[in-house]
Amino acid sequence: QKEVEQDPGPLSVPEGAIVSLNCTYSNSAFQYFMWYRQYSRKGPELLMYTYSSGNKEDGRFTAQVDKSSKYISLFIRDSQPSDSATYLCAMSANAGGTSYGKLTFGQGTILTVHP
Amino acid sequence: GAVVSQHPSRVICKSGTSVKIECRSLDFQATTMFWYRQFPKQSLMLMATSNEGSKATYEQGVEKDKFLINHASLTLSTLTVTSAHPEDSSFYICSARDLRREKLFFGSGTQLSVL
Q: Which residue, of A3, A7, A102, B19, has the greatest Cβ tally within 10 A?
């Protein structure tokens, strides 16, 4: 069993739709949870960063973490064609989260938002 | 603009040759950098952690004699794929840890194709 499971999709939605992306994990030591966006043949860019359980909102993006269920989600409201990319969840058990950098990634979900 | 520069972005080489990939932090000192490999439609897999002035730490299953990592300065880490074979063809991505900003920045990746 992989430490982090993510449905690879692909996921295709119309412009303006609400997109829901999620990951499950098995390692209860994970404390830091991140969502990255990756365009084709580019490095990932950080979208959201959450510590432990709870919600975090940033513009059209909302990240949720449920540690009891080992389940994390990313919601994109009012999706735009420019949101079309691969979305990767990532997790870390190290104190400092992204500052330590040893991340375990999900497989990535390919999202297409069509006009 | 990019804070981590990765070069080259794409390289095609013959089987048996060695290829060097550079990862530079542009506006911060990075005592730690990370090297990932990503196969098509798959997640980023951590290969090794590169520490300035010391030997790299390799993940299980990664051949340290094949993937040579040098982190000789606070702004530069290099990954050399020695005696490359077609199965080494992949997308290689580096990341660098900025302790001051407590962030992890990714390079734009290098697509290696071994003929």
A: B19
Do residues A35 and A87 make contact, with C-beta atoms less than 8 angstroms apart? yes
SS3 label, residue A111: strand
Q: Distance between terminal CA atoms of chain A?
A: 37
Interface of B with A in 16-75 (CB under 8 A): 32, 34, 41-46, 49
The residue of A33, A99, A109 whose CB has the most chain B CBs within 10 angstroms, and thus the best one to mutate to test that interface, is: A99
Output the six-digit token pair for A79. 């999706």
Task: Map tokens 């069993």 to a residue.
Answer: A1
Subunit contact B108:A42, Cβ cutoff 8 A: yes
A22-70 tens-digit pLDDT? 999 999 989 889 999 999 888 899 899 888 888 999 999 999 999 999 9
- The residue ranking higher by pLDDT, A8 or A25, is A25
* Amino acid present at A14: P
List chain B residues with pLDDT less than 50: none
Burial class (CB in 10 A: 0-12, 13-18, 19+), B44: buried
Here the tokens at position A19 are 């997109």
Look at B68 and A1; give whichever has higher pLDDT. Answer: B68
